[in-house]
Design goal:
The chain has about 200 residues and is α/β, with parallel strands linked by helices. It folds into two domains: about 40 residues; about 130 residues, Carbonic anhydrase (Beta-carbonic Anhydrase, Chain A, 3-Layer(aba) Sandwich). The chain is about 45% helix and about 15% strand. The chain is built from six helices and five strands. The protein has a five-stranded mixed β-sheet, with helices on both faces. Strand 3, helix 6 and strand 4 form a beta-alpha-beta unit. The longest helix is centred in the C-terminal third of the chain and has 22 residues.
């Protein structure tokens, strides 16, 4: 809920109250509190679980693509057991580190990681690229799934080396979300991932 929307709601409350006869002060006061109470019950009834906690387990960078969002979060929480994590989304994910289109892409992503370390004392940095990514030109651009995965693996490994120089104390985990038979399969990319010719 942004402040613009909040102010708009308060304006509506004021208009409703001001439309009532001024002689009926008790009713005006009653309606004012009723409208504001209903506003909070409908719009802001979300329990906050972290009042006394500022430590996160990890920071995860993955693509903004909505098609992979739910499964990626489920994988992080259920398979990697990362319940408390900071999330950074950017088109292309690790491409912004390994091969940024403009310098500000690299600066934005690395700055967010830096803030996560400073404020939430994370121990891990998770980088997740995915198949059929528009920032890479989609799957058709590569002419084959193996070549596509090789390009993503290359960027993930390059990103890891760059981040290790800057964030030496954090473990960096590389993941590729592959598409196999219309299912998302998360695969860890190791340092010894075989280099495939990209020509």
């Amino acid at each position: 809920m942004n402040f613009q929307c909040f102010n708009f709601q308060l304006i509506i409350v004021k208009l409703v109250i001001d439309c009532q006869p001024k002689a009926d002060q008790p009713m005006r006061r009653k309606n004012r509190y009723l409208i504001i109470e209903n506003y909070y019950n409908i719009s802001m009834n979300y329990p906050f679980q972290y009042s006394n906690q500022h430590h996160a387990q990890a920071c995860a960078l993955f693509c903004m693509d909505f098609r992979f969002k739910d499964e990626t979060l489920k994988y992080l929480k259920e398979e990697l057991n990362l319940k408390d994590l900071d999330i950074i989304t950017a088109a292309g994910a690790s491409k912004n580190i390994a091969d940024p289109k403009v310098l500000t892409d690299y600066q934005f992503v690395t700055r967010q990681i830096e803030i996560s370390i400073q404020l939430h004392e994370i121990d891990k940095i998770i980088l997740i690229n995915h198949a059929n990514c528009g920032a890479y030109g989609s799957r058709e651009f590569f002419g084959g799934a193996d070549k596509e995965k090789a390009v993503h693996a290359k960027d993930l490994l390059k990103s890891k080396k760059l981040l290790e120089k800057r964030f030496a104390e954090q473990e960096i985990v590389l993941i590729y979300a592959n598409l196999i038979n219309e299912a998302i399969v998360f695969e860890k990319i190791k340092n010894n991932y075989p280099q495939v010719s990209l020509k």
